[in-house]
Amino acid sequence: MMSSYVEFTEEMKRDYTVLAPNMLPLQLTLVKNVLASEGLKVELLENSGPQIAETGLKYTHNDTCYPAILVIGQFMDALLSGKYDLNKVALIYFQTGGGCRASNYISLIRKALKSAGLEHIPVISFSFAGLEKHSGFKLSLSALKRIIYGVVYGDLLFLLRNQCKPYELNKGESQQMADKYCSILEERMRTDGVSFKRFLANCREVLDAFAAIPRSTEKKVQVGIVGEIYVKFSPLGNNNLEQMLVDNGAEVTIPGLFDFFMYCIHNAITDYKLYRRGRKTYPLMKFIYSYLLKKQKAVIDLINEHGVFRSPAYFANTVKLIESYMSHGCKMGEGWLLPAEMLELADSGVKNIVCTQPFGCLPNHICGKGMMKPIKDRNPDVNIVAIDYDASASKVNQENRIKLMLANAVDEKKTAVGV
């Protein structure tokens, strides 16, 4: 065991509270409950407000990327709140093993803890790459399968809620339905196991439940959100962008978390093809990739057969969309996935896109902002606006630029229908 970090032990597992940042409430609530079934008491942090960024800046350098400032700020704000026993608490964060934020945050979190005199608090690296070992954090094969199912269930609830929310006649019903099925599906995963037949039956039930929500027939402007994974999903990171768009008359589409997992697996395959890295794990990665593609295709076919809602993109098609624009070897941070999701949205009819990026994030400025012109040159009907997020950025300026994009989109829609 390396001495550079505090191990989360089997003994700690019994009575420690493990804190996690809440980037995606629906997906991560389902994942949290899988971890609970493995004996971990995980709490998703809900603390928010301007003090989060202020606390993050206090415990890390102001040139650190904005998501890191927020994650560290949320952790430190919670720990210093007096709510937790600081001798019975641990932190958890996901690491991909890449060269960007997802690998460096762990050391930054530990540095912040040391600055506050809390270096005794364990920080668990949740990584499929096995970057660190913690005797109190070991997941069974069944748990890993349930985590995957949890992400897909969460993405489905996320998708259906977003397609219903702008049109619901009873305000709040779509979110209530999503929260209700989040609890139901967690219970079924625990009691029914991981039968794929049962999984598809649950998905069909969810589709029927959302289809029954009373909705208006008005068609609103569709807006997609892409970008760096944290500011793309987290209301804390993007100033509640999704709700702001809905409040201004838009229907929001956001590619799900499952695609990012598939991107990480695809990158492992690319590493072998381009650099002959991971020779031993390459066959396993190919098998997992193929296996998950088949499961995703079955869910997409189910949604299309149901006929009420638009299905998400098939990841294999997303991979192909980017091939004439960028190499799959460009995979730092969100890499090729970011412009691929722009093309994926445009291909599905979502022509208005907000590209969210932390100010100064080099991979996202190259693969996001830098790819806007090539994409728009070849897809002139696509309207993309890049929004930088930072502790010092003006929320009013961000919202004004987005509202201008929406106004242009509404005008284009009226012109298209001859109004």
What does this structure look like?
The chain has 419 residues and is an alpha/beta fold. Among the domains are: 12-138, Rossmann fold (3-Layer(aba) Sandwich); 219-255 and 313-416, Rossmann fold (3-Layer(aba) Sandwich). The protein is 54% helix and 11% strand. It has helices spanning 12-15, 25-37, 50-59, 66-79, 101-115, 141-164, 173-192, 196-211, 229-233, 241-247, 257-275, 282-306, 315-321, 337-347, 362-367, 372-378, 395-416; strands spanning 17-21, 41-45, 89-94, 123-126, 221-227, 250-253, 352-358, 383-389. A four-stranded parallel β-sheet has the order 2-1-3-4, with helices on both faces. Strands 6-5-7-8 form a four-stranded parallel β-sheet, with helices on both faces. Helix 2 links the parallel strand 1 and strand 2 (41-45). Helix 7 (173-192) packs antiparallel against helix 8. The radius of gyration is 21 Å and the shape is globular.
Give a summary of the structure in a few sentences.
The protein is an alpha/beta fold and 419 residues long. Helices cover 54% and strands 11% of the residues.
